[in-house]
Design goal:
This protein is α+β, with helices and mostly antiparallel strands and 269 residues long. It has helices spanning 4-13, 18-34, 39-56, 59-79, 102-113, 116-126, 130-134, 138-147, 172-200, 233-254; strands spanning 84-94, 149-156, 160-169, 214-220. The longest helix has 29 residues, at 172-200.
Length: 269
């Protein structure tokens, strides 16, 4: 199935003048089949199509281009999948703030929790991004997963720090479950680091984990995933259409009388 962003971009290409499309549309479509577009790509092509209409088209073309661009922009927001975010909070404490750099320890735990091995295990166990993985695009699925994860320091002192761990996904239940998995990975990496340091010093892990040099504990469990805040799709569509129409009218009034004809496509070599 074609990705929504690629479909939207193909619609946007239709905003270009016909002369341009006759020359370049086939080449652009082939390129899109090989490389899925990003949101910045969609915005760039919106802008270029609109400006080309302003420069070479008539007044009605400019107005139609402005309204069409705004409508497609609103439609793009409408078609972007709804994302849900679940968040948890962990606390990390140090017995000896002079000996231990707590921020460095937290960064180490986070780096290991986000390792390829750990994330792949979570992704497969929760069956995340099944379409990408079915196509053999495991690296792209992993990159998409990383983009939905956030480790953020809430506050930090030499002896204690709190970190929020969150995950964004289209399914609210899976967003919550994966956040739990990420928290477990974070705490497990703290334990592994502690055991490795004790074994390197020829000591056995203590029975009471409260005596550990660095201790990470769950403070706030993963909450029910909430949809990120933002305008409703219908509102976003209306605002985009209104702003686009207003911009188009301003450009029409500012255009010079000596309009430049759209240059013909260069001859094929």
């Amino acid at each position: 199935m074609r990705q929504p962003s690629r479909t939207i971009l193909l619609w946007v290409v239709c905003l270009y003048p016909r002369s341009w499309r006759e020359r370049y549309e086939k080449e652009l479509r082939s390129l899109l089949e090989d490389s899925p577009p990003s949101r910045s790509d969609i915005f760039d092509i919106f802008k270029e199509a609109f400006m080309m209409r302003v420069r070479y088209g008539g007044m009605l073309t400019v107005l139609a281009g402005g309204v069409g661009t705004a409508a497609v922009a609103g439609l793009a927001m409408w078609l972007i999948p709804v994302q849900y975010v679940s968040q948890a909070v962990v606390s990390t404490t140090s017995k000896d703030s002079l000996e231990v750099n707590l921020i460095d320890e937290i960064n180490l735990f986070a780096q290991r929790a986000l390792s390829r091995e750990n994330l792949t295990r979570v992704m497969e166990s929760r069956n995340l991004y099944p379409r990408l993985r079915a196509k053999g695009q495991a690296d792209e699925a992993l990159q998409t997963m990383r983009s939905g994860i956030q480790f953020k320091k809430i506050f930090a002192r030499p002896d204690i720090a709190q970190t929020s761990i969150s995950f964004r996904y289209a399914d609210p239940y899976l967003a919550k479950m994966v956040t739990r998995d990420l928290v477990s990975n974070f705490i497990d990496e703290n334990i592994r680091q502690e055991i490795a340091e004790l074994e390197a010093a020829g000591q056995k892990p203590p029975l009471d984990w409260k005596t550990r040099r660095v201790l990470t504990e769950l403070v706030v469990p993963a909450d029910d995933a909430q949809r990120p805040t933002g305008p409703k799709p219908a509102t976003a569509l209306s605002l985009a259409a209104a702003e686009g129409t207003q911009l188009a009218l301003i450009l029409v009034l500012l255009r010079k009388r000596n309009e430049k004809p759209f240059p013909p496509p260069p001859p094929d070599s």
